[in-house]
Amino acid sequence: MNVSSAVQPGVARRVVLIDFDWQDADLLPVLFRRPELSIRLVAGANDEDPGLRVADLCGLPRTQDLGDLTRDPADAPRASVPPRPTQRTDRMSLEDFPSPADRSGLEQALLALMSDTGAVSAELYAGRAGDVQVVAQVGAKDELMKGLVELAMRLDQPQVVKRLSGPDEGKAWGAWPFRTGQRQGVLAAGGIDPAEGWTMWEKTVEELRNTWDQRDREQASSSFPLMPVIEPGWLDREEFRGRIEMAVSRNARDELRFMLRRVTFPNAPEAIEQFCHVLPEQLRETDSICRPRLDLMMILTPWAPGTAAMLEKRLTTLFAHAWHESGRQETVPALESQELLLVKPEDHAEFLKHALEWLGGA
Q1: Full-prediction pTM beyond 0.85?
Q2: What is the CATH number of domain 2-75?
């Protein structure tokens, strides 16, 4: 840090800051707020310099030309700061979301979403397990966003943080992992303003996953269908056993993950029949159901983080409706359930063993 030696009483000192690293960069906002100091210039080697990046956030003059240090700091060039995106009233449709190979199209889609949410940077990662790469990137690289992406990938769970102090107070950073039948990835955004805008990114991830998954299944269906082609509805034991074995094969081939849930109904025949009558119409084409016993059902569904909670809510809501439709006046009892997850190759033996035990010993 260079401080001008000619200081008059009552006049703020003119300060030039040079070559800040990430440890020093946290001091910049503090110095900026001190009334006895006037930061006239921040100098660094390149655009990735921590001091220059923080200077942008604080709206301070910055330069990569060390020759500026020999001139009056007041005459040094000021870095251009991109204008804050205006809020859009029309939200982009993801029905035609670009493919992973269309980097330009993906970056345009990210720009539109950034405009909707006030974000200043975004990245989209995609690829096969163990080989996930950046397929689209908009805005400056962000160390916090990078850390959240790594954490989201490792834990396979969304990571969202909100700044509680400093120049970015009230803004959010997030990374949301996703998987399809052919690939996995992460969508990340930084500087979301206001912070509540992160919910739109979360919704986008689910829509993106569904769109890409549909394309993957269509491309793979000709050589290896996701599930046997049969009419939707309740399956008998042998048909359901085939679905279980197919799930293990798909996990081994494409890393597609599944959840098997076993649901035991309370003693209410009329409500059970009403529930079983309407359930097939409420499921996705990739869901498989079997009723090996009058008071028992099993459902096999592709799994992703949040699937269990969504399925639980769907089944509970449908059973509550069936309960009342059947004329029962008592409080709706809870459905007893157990579940098995098929996530990685190491799960194959245990998943198949317990799944067939459930099916055969029902």
Answers
A1: no
A2: 3.40.50.720
Kindly report the backbone phi and psi dihedral angles of residue 277, in degrees, each rounded to the nearest multiple of 5, phi listed first: -70, -40
Helices 103-117 and 198-221: angle between axes, nearest 10 degrees: 150
Burial status of residue 127 (CB atoms within 10 A of its CB: 0-12, 13-18, 19 or more) = middle
Give, to the nearest 10 degrees, the angle between helix 307-325 and helix 269-278.
120
Question: What would the pLDDT profile of 234-293 be if each residue is shown by its tens digit?
Answer: 998 888 999 999 999 888 887 889 999 999 999 999 999 999 999 988 887 788 999 998
Choose the weakest-confidence range: 50-54, 151-155, 334-338, 339-343: 50-54
CATH domain 103-221 topology: Beta-Lactamase (3.30.450)
* Distance set, CA 81 to CA 19, 190, 219, 284 (Å): 20, 16, 44, 47
- Domain(s) of CATH 3.30.450.40: residues in the chain: 103-221
Write out the residue limits of the CATH 3.40.50.720 domain(s) in the chain.
Answer: 2-75
Rounded to a whole number, what is the distance in angstroms from the first to the last CA of the chain?
75
* pLDDT for residue 23: 52
pLDDT digits (tens, 9 = 90+) for 64-96: 665 555 554 445 444 333 333 333 334 444 445
Give 234-360's CATH code, choosing from 2.130.10.10, 3.30.70.270, 3.50.50.60, 3.30.830.10: 3.30.70.270
Sign, CA torsion 310/172/212/92: positive
